[in-house]
Amino acid sequence: MKKLRIFAYGIALGSLVFSCQPQKFRGTTVSATTGEGTLELVANGEDFVRQGFVSKDGWSINFEHLYVNISEAIAYSTESSFEPQTGDTKESIEYQNSINFDPLQVPDLAAGEVNAAPIVIASTNVPQGFYNALAWKLSTAGADSPFPGSTIKLIGQATKDQKTINFDLGFNQPTEYVCGEYVGEERQGIVTASRSGKMEATFHFDHIFGDGDTPPEDTLNQDALGFQPLANLANNGIVKLDEADLASQLSEADYRQLTNAITGLGHVGEGHCVTNVKSPLTSDTNSQ
After folding, report:
1. How much is the pTM?
2. Which pLDDT band, with edges at 50, 70 and 90, does 2 fall under?
3. Distance, CA of 227 to CA of 230 (rounded, Å)
4. Please, which residues have CB within 8 angstroms of residue 36's CB and are 6 or more apart in sequence?
5. Is residue 233 packed enough to be buried (19+ CB in 10 Å), middle (13-18) or exposed (0-12)?
């Protein structure tokens, strides 16, 4: 997936059309038919959250747990392709069918073998068709969650120059993601009676830490915080911080860079999403 990102980074979604007549979608014929099939929602932190990776500033990062609290996930089939624009919300999607995924499991994106498949967090029967838009939220987890008070929880170790830091980071930035069609190596979202469909909420955690295998001047690394600013906050080899701690202990510039990176985590494969963010520390709402 990392190689695909380097190739696909910044590519816009192509124009697609879905109507009541059979249409060609990059070699696939999809017809609007009666009946139902199964549509799954999966969450994917990509291979490197299980395999480990090197940050832009040379820290080898390995996750023990990586929780994301996904809520209010809705799949849409639209008559024409939905390409998110700045300011869009899910209410702006003109759809033929909308499907609420409920209930939703809380995924640990670091769980499983290094090459494990994305985690199924919901499955439901839906009308057959092509589901080409997806909206979901990251919401603050409740008291019964393994990470109460956070939208995202990162637990693991970072190592550099024979120094190891254990980190426990709780981010709390409620965010709505409004996305178009999945962009990747295979088409997703097509449901027939004989073929289950899949939609994916993808999280690019290298947006926070950067990628040591990518040139420093690459936009990914220019925008990423890296791990060193967090390592500088370690106490006896431990960094255990929640959102309020990060806001008060990081420099203003570093905290802004971190929050922007967290906002940009959510994708559909390599497809970008519109984000609507409400900061838990202020009453401000931002759209990117």
Report:
1. 0.84
2. very low
3. 5
4. 125, 126, 127, 128, 193
5. middle
